């Protein structure tokens, strides 16, 4: 697994083949399907990432990100791409995100999305999507889920390079980064939805869900984050159980009377 600490400060032309529709994979705490949450930095309370029912989406849960920031905290979710695939063949990349009005971060703040890329001319690093560079600078929607197809959106680079290809030097499309900075050998090895920021004294509690990616002739997945069934099942109260039992006894008695009448 390759993941590292990084902080966010604020149809793709690579593949022309039609996007395939991936079967949905359900991710739960007991069966994370390869996903894991990692926290960095120290705060009180501590940064937190888990599958919860705080902001349910497409079912009972979602992947929550919670930061009580002192300028140094981050929550990063990680998924290994297997098998790895060339960035040039990527033809699907999207996710849904949620920001509650209770968050006190700047209004443009959204969960971010990173892709870890290796073998590029600029070395290894993250290509990072943020809402602030893709339309939320005036304020991200709050208290509602937003679906973002980010395949053709702007990214920034967290890695080596020089000039416009240096770390955080440009906010450009994936096509631009491949042709201008990374080259055709750049390979995607992992996905990393996350949030980390330097706004001391603020709090964020949001979530993401419905992560989808696909490569031409390669892997294609769509992930729905949910709670375990046992955590959402409603156990009948004793009185309800008594009524249910009484009803079953009544049905049996009624059928017995009908048979005797015949």
Key traits:
seven-stranded mixed β-sheet; 262 residues; 14% helix; single chain; mainly beta
Structure notes:
This protein has 262 residues and is mainly beta. The chain contains three helices and 13 strands. 38% of the residues are buried.
Task: Give the low-confidence spans.
Answer: 5-13, 16-20, 232-260
Mean pLDDT: 84
Oligomer kind: single chain
Query: Which range best describes the helical content: under 10%, 10-25%, 25-40%, 40-55%, 55-70% or over 70%?
Result: 10-25%
Radius of gyration: 23 Å
Structural class: mainly beta
Order of helices and strands: EEEEEEEEEEHEEEHH
Mind sketching the topology for me?
Blueprint: E1 24-27, E2 36-40, E3 48-52, E4 62-68, E5 74-86, E6 90-98, E7 112-120, E8 123-129, E9 145-149, E10 155-159, H1 174-182, E11 187-196, E12 203-215, E13 220-225, H2 229-232, H3 238-261
Parallel strand pairs: 1-13
Antiparallel strand pairs: 2-5, 3-4, 4-12, 5-11, 6-9, 6-12, 7-8, 7-11, 8-10, 12-13
In short:
This protein has 262 residues and is mainly beta.
């Amino acid at each position: 697994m390759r993941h590292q600490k990084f902080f966010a400060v604020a149809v793709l032309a690579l593949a022309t083949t039609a996007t395939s529709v991936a079967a949905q994979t359900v991710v739960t705490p007991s069966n994370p399907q390869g996903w894991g949450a990692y926290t960095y930095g120290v705060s009180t309370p501590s940064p937190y990432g888990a599958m919860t029912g705080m902001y349910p989406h497409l079912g009972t849960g979602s992947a929550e990100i919670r930061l009580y920031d002192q300028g140094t905290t981050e929550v990063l979710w990680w998924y290994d791409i297997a098998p790895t695939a060339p960035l040039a063949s990527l033809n699907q990349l999207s996710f849904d995100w949620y920001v509650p009005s209770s968050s006190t971060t700047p209004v443009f703040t959204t969960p971010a999305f990173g892709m870890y890329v290796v073998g590029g001319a600029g070395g290894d690093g993250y290509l990072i999507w943020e809402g602030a560079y893709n339309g939320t600078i005036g304020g991200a929607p709050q208290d509602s889920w937003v679906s973002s197809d980010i395949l053709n959106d702007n990214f920034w680079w967290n890695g080596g390079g020089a000039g416009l290809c240096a770390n955080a030097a440009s906010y450009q499309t994936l096509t631009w980064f491949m042709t201008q900075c990374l080259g055709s050998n750049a390979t995607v090895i992992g996905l990393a939805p996350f949030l980390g920021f330097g706004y001391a004294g603020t709090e964020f509690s949001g979530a993401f869900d419905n992560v989808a990616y696909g490569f031409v002739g390669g892997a294609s997945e769509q992930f729905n984050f949910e709670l375990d069934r046992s955590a959402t099942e409603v156990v009948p109260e004793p009185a309800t159980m008594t009524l249910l039992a009484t009803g079953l006894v009544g049905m049996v008695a009624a059928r017995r009377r009908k048979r005797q009448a015949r």
